[in-house]
Amino acid sequence: MRRQPPVRDIDENELEVHDPKTAAAGVKAVMVSMDRGISQAGVGRTVRSMLRVNQRGGFDCPGCAWPESITGARKPAEFCENGAKAIAEENTLRTVTPEFWARHSIEELAGKTEYWLGNQGRITEPVVIREGETHYSPISWTDAFDLIGEHIRATTPDRCVFYTSGRTANETAFMYQLFARSVGTNNLPDCSNMCHESSGSALNPTIGIGKGTVSLEDMHRAELILVVGQNPGTNHPRMLSALAECRENGGRVVAVNPLPEAGLMKFKDPQDPGNLLRGGAQIADEFLQIKVGGDLALFQALGHLLLEEEERVPGSVVDHDFIAAQTDGFEEYREARRRISWEETETATGLSRLEIARIAGMLAKSKATIICWALGLTQQPHSVNTLREIINLLLLQGNFGKPGAGACPVRGHSNVQGDRTMGIWEKPKEWLLEAIDREFGISSPRHHGVDSTETLEAFENDDVDVFVSMGGNFALACSDTEALEAGMKRAGLTVHISTKPNRSHIVHGRTSLILPTLGRTDRDDKHPGGTQFLSVEDSMSVVHSTQGRLAPVSEHLLAEPVIIARMAQATFGDGHPVDWKAMAEDYDVVRDHISRVLPGFENFNERIRHKNGFVLPNPPRDTRSFATDIGKGRFSVSPLEYLQAPEGHLILQTMRSHDQYNTTFYGLDDRYRGISNGRRVVLVHPEDLAELGYADRDLVDVISTFKGTERRADKFRLVAYPTARGCAAAYFPEANALVHRELVARESNTPGYKAMTVRFVPHGEPQLS
């Protein structure tokens, strides 16, 4: 019996706070997974999908990008609790029909939370709202595409923006970037701009590739893994299995994070009865509770101590042969790390010299080290320099191109890495544009487009006439929420290719379309050649197929490649050099084009049909070489930087709840942190609360300060929590309104979600001018 969508919305007065958990997963995770699936989709659809998720010949989980084994057997359940929630949301039998839109005006929907909107179900038919109207209403697919074509032709290319969510498959992403460049623009912002752009900005100049350099098997074989600025228990729980296996094989794990997350402490593997009987497996051998923004200081200190140990015992730490043959800049790096201020280092990190020295000792002894990181390191002004320091440490000990060693940026959304590989980027390389033009006979624009933050500014400056969103929820994902929403409402046309309602549909342009599409679990069989499949790239550069088998909830849904092709046909008409129809009818045609455009995809159609897919080339991993501009790995020197809050302020970071994925809220239970039935909370150390004159559960307004300007977010509940001193944490996207658009990571322009300087005032207290 399927459960109906929630009638009541979030009531923050019902907030409950319990003690945080000290272990992740376990039997509770299994129970929650099954409950969410059955309540949304029933027993049959839930079981059929769970048996195929992340299995060979099945579909790729629409959640995170953590890889599966390509050499060994896979577990019967190759998914985690949050993956099960993501699948349940997509499999749901709840539907959003034209009657829903007729029943709810935009004014009413604007007062609903993302939790309520997303839980209404799958959108069944295309709908439109025009200037002056109060409700969305049905529109035919043909009329919708004609409307898009009219608006694109009526403006100039650079006033059109094409946004991409990480859920987009490879073939879809390739067609989408081809459509944008055929229109005449490189305005291709994507969710990577807001997440891991700093990683690419740091890795490309230093090691010649913007991706990680390890495999899943390397994780198992490492002697030491540093997990920095990430919460695998919630954001990519299957990583816990890899960390546990590393420790079983004799490796050690160090966790570095401002919050003592459950998944960093212990893992209760529900597929291992022995593990459950033992109370779970330890994950972190050491936990460093670092201050937000203190990681650059930590890595510089570790480099200093490793070089100091090398001087004491020559040949014990530094891989001199590797450095001489494959790197540049070592002498400058060694000189820069020769001296250190331990007083300032301890201030920046919140760690003692003894704690840091203990980790340096582990690094010195390890002959195969992997350093993993996620958004805790990528969303601060000095993020790129922080990541360069990670590369310095790895180069120092030769931790590239050997088993169990390397750099591991842990990507978030499934296929966000593949989208970039396919050409979704506002700053394309000339070789890519030349290859596209040669393959299709078009003339791609050469000037750079706008990224996500620049798109926000374009909206505010009324420089956007057409905004097309391939999945995602741009209004909630971006920073400076109030300014962005106001700008989106003034745009000429917004187009959202979506599966479920979200906030971006409500803060729409003067004219707006919602185009419902198939999801990962849906069968895609409306093609002359029969059922089609797509492909994705995981966080470790493995490309494999994905194919849904469930009947779609509506006959009116179209696959994303078909939607792109029909947008293009309606925009360009007959005579365009690209055969859009052929690609929409047979995805093999798309893959043939990709094989001739992108290096590493030769014989794409043959190789993608292998049960394990194939691994893309990666010079640092494969040949211990670096395709930088100098042909070597590059040491770099950065000044010491860290985040400092003035008196009466804290440094605030955003984070996900355990019951959400990006801007999608599955429920209201952040189980591991002990927070439930509410989301407008700020976690603060009890001693910081006392010093600031507040008590646990006080209701406050949060004010951020940046360059003399302020942003305000009202009605947050303070919760005493064991965070790092001087730091606080609040949920994304509720706290996004506090991020000034100019608070970004240098070089990457990623919003500073982990770098806000905030103070509190009692709720309702007037703001002083």
From TrEMBL:
Which intervals hold domain Molybdopterin oxidoreductase?
Answer: 122-486
> Which branch of life, at top level?
Bacteria
Matching Pfam families: Molybdopterin, Molydop_binding
List the cofactors. Mo-bis(molybdopterin guanine dinucleotide); [4Fe-4S] cluster
Q: What is this protein called?
A: FdhF/YdeP family oxidoreductase
Q: What are the boundaries of the signal sequence?
A: none
What family is this protein classified in? Belongs to the prokaryotic molybdopterin-containing oxidoreductase family.
Every copy of the Molybdopterin dinucleotide-binding domain together lies at 650-755
What the entry lists under SUPFAM superfamilies is as follows: ADC-like (SSF50692), Formate dehydrogenase/DMSO reductase, domains 1-3 (SSF53706)
Keyword annotations for this protein?
Answer: 4Fe-4S, Iron, Iron-sulfur, Metal-binding, Molybdenum, Oxidoreductase
- Kindly give the CDD domains that the UniProt entry links to this protein: MopB_CT_ydeP, MopB_ydeP
